[in-house]
Design goal:
about 250 residues; alpha+beta; L-fuculose-1-phosphate Aldolase; seven-stranded mixed sheet; 8 helices; globular
Length: about 250
């Protein structure tokens, strides 16, 4: 079946459908911003309700092809709990299931292999306090050492331990991960994370000595960013991003 022919909008609750629309929009935006890696990496979101069910991408579709109806609903073990002609990448769900299981506030988990993010993840000192954008990240940033492709469940406890209660995780030699209370929050967080990495790589390429932002300013940043972003939830930016998508291609809503 062609993924564009699917329409399950009448088969799920209104709250699940809204989550599907937001998550499919997030996939499209990740592609638009150039953070995708062909069909690899994942974004997952919890389905509203008492069950621990999650939405994730159908394995094999490019991020700019994903629609609300094509998203696959699975449980914490990656088993499908709603009929779908598509499969998921079980290996890709290892990271996501670990975070979802450990964090009630991690309703969306966004993981990318962005070029700038991977470049900084390969640097010994990780993300540096070089830009205003980095201030939004550093106050809630954790690191997890590379253990190879995420195939083994025994990595989950170490990943959860390293993430702790943070919102941003740099997977060393691998990529970036954000968690959010909403899809919007996870996406806007990733925007700041990847932008911080891009600015760092470009600043380092300039060859001059780098000027670090003093620690007291770094420490004060969370309060300032919460005020500017209305709680850092993406509530201001997200509707504007959806308007941009709708103006060019609203098929993500199917």
């Amino acid at each position: 079946m062609n993924h564009r022919d699917l329409d399950i909008s009448r088969d799920v609750s209104a709250s699940e459908w809204q989550q599907r629309v937001d998550l499919s929009a997030c996939y499209r935006l990740v592609a638009r911003f150039g953070w995708d890696d062909l069909i690899f990496t994942h974004i997952s979101a919890r389905v509203p309700g008492p069950e621990h069910h999650f939405l994730i991408n159908p394995y094999g579709l490019m991020f700019n092809e994903i629609t609300a109806s094509s998203l696959v609903k699975v449980d914490l073990d990656g088993r499908k709990v709603f009929d779908s002609p598509f499969d998921i990448n079980p290996a890709g769900f290892v990271i996501h299931s670990a975070v979802h299981a450990a964090r009630d506030d991690a309703l969306c988990v966004l993981h990318v292999h962005s070029v700038n993010g991977v470049a900084v993840s390969a640097q010994q000192d990780g993300l540096l306090p070089l830009s205003q954008h980095s201030m939004a990240v550093l106050s809630s940033l954790a690191y997890h050492d590379y253990e190879g492709v995420a195939l083994n469940d025994d990595e989950k406890p170490r990943l959860v331990r390293d993430l702790g209660d943070k919102r941003f995780l740099m997977l060393r030699n691998h990529g970036l991960l954000t968690v959010g209370r909403t899809v919007a929050e996870a996406f806007v967080g990733m925007y700041f994370f990847e932008a911080s990495c891009m600015m760092q790589v470009r600043a380092q390429a300039g060859g001059a000595a780098l000027r670090h932002i003093p620690q007291p300013i770094v420490d004060a940043a969370p309060r300032q960013f919460a005020a500017v972003t209305h709680g850092a939830g993406g509530n201001l930016a997200w509707p504007a991003l959806l308007r941009q998508l709708d103006a060019s291609d609203s098929s993500y809503r199917r």
